[in-house]
Amino acid sequence: MTAGTTRVDVALGARGYPILIGPGLRARVGTLIREALPKARRAFVVTDTRVAALYQNDLTTGLERADVAWTLHAVPAGEASKSFAHLEALLEAMLGFGIERGTPVIALGGGVVGDLAGFAAAVALRGVPLVQIPTTLLSQVDSSVGGKTAINSRHGKNLIGAFHQPQLVLADTETLNTLPRRELLAGYAETAKYGLIGDAPFWDWLEAHGAALLDGDPALRAEAIAISCRAKAAVVAADEREAGQRALLNLGHTFGHALEAETGYGPDLLHGEGVSIGMVMAFDLSHRLGLCAGPDVERVRRHFEAVGLPVRPDPSRAWNIDRLLAHMAKDKKVEDGRVTFVVADGIGHAHVKRDVPMETVRNTLAAVVG
Ligand SMILES: NC(=O)c1ccc[n+]([C@@H]2O[C@H](COP(=O)([O-])OP(=O)(O)OC[C@H]3O[C@@H](n4cnc5c(N)ncnc54)[C@H](O)[C@@H]3O)[C@@H](O)[C@H]2O)c1
Ligand SMILES: O=C(O)C(=O)C[C@@H](O)[C@H](O)[C@H](O)COP(=O)(O)O
Ligand SMILES: [Zn+2]
Hints:
This protein folds into two domains: 6-178, Rossmann fold; 181-369, Dehydroquinate synthase-like, alpha domain (Up-down Bundle), CATH 1.20.1090.10. It has 370 residues and is α/β, with parallel strands linked by helices. It is 48% helix and 17% strand. Its EC number is 4.2.3.4.
């Protein structure tokens, strides 16, 4: 392996794969894809218009050098592309290109491209290979790993999807240099999630180094991405289809997804921003349930505020608690009509709780949007 590249393996037996993390990987992309998929002579690249302008040439030049013919399909940047309409257009383009069972789909971009292209790869011809080339912090620490793919429905976030693992993940850390700070912060929320779930020393480390990481320190970024990928790979290897502990990766998401649904999946609230607010709410809920000490709730809120993440929903908007609760009732973790929450006994000690009184959830919501 080239110096400066870290490898993390997702141990899923025959469906296992490596995650390579480091600078300059996009220059080696053709060779790396040919190594992972030796039979691939053609590839279908999916990206968004912003990422295409920045990184399309690097990728396609690499593919050509490795003798892989390609075509490229770009969707508009932003969450709205995770829709039926964009999925349909993408699938028709893939079929029009003449993809075969062995033709890889390459997702070049953030979590939106990864989730959409991943779902298309899961259903086209009942499944074609997938390569993830994540270009946002969020996608490098989270969405490119683990095989969750999805689009949104008018009924809620990620409600239509499939588990479809990639065969290779290439996280070129240099691509983060062009990422706007707001997007970096959104990814930072999902990074911090691993500390809050089960790694208190990582949370301490982020409190110490988070600001420098966000300001651009490449070594700190690479370290945080590797720690996050190791944490996610371990959870996914133990519980690929979320029968149990994988639900911990949903910390803050029941609240966050409800906020995203209320804002119509537009640019007002990014997924990572919803997760930041949602994790503060999950800690507040845990405190109300007598599980988590008040100082830990404050510590989470203070660190997110200090780096510039939102910790409460936009106060200039009229939020309706009943509507937020109705969104939560559509969450994929609902069992027998009861919403499942990820709560915490403290920083680094999250667990799943199925008997949370909705009145307490209402109190958590009322404290910030009432
Ligand atoms: N599948 C999973 O396990 C999983 C995990 C977490 C989040 N998600 C999903 O991921 C999505 C959010 O992903 P995201 O935060 O990456 O958002 P995104 O894909 O919308 O990317 C954010 C923005 O940054 C731009 N961009 C991407 N890379 C860039 C770069 N290197 N330089 C400059 N601009 C760049 C994009 O064009 C876009 O405008 C949500 O839909 C969320 O539900 C999925
Ligand atoms: O990989 C997982 O498992 C996660 O929960 C990661 C989350 O960050 C991600 O946002 C996921 O898509 C949310 O879960 P979902 O099942 O509601 O889609
Ligand atoms: Zn998420």
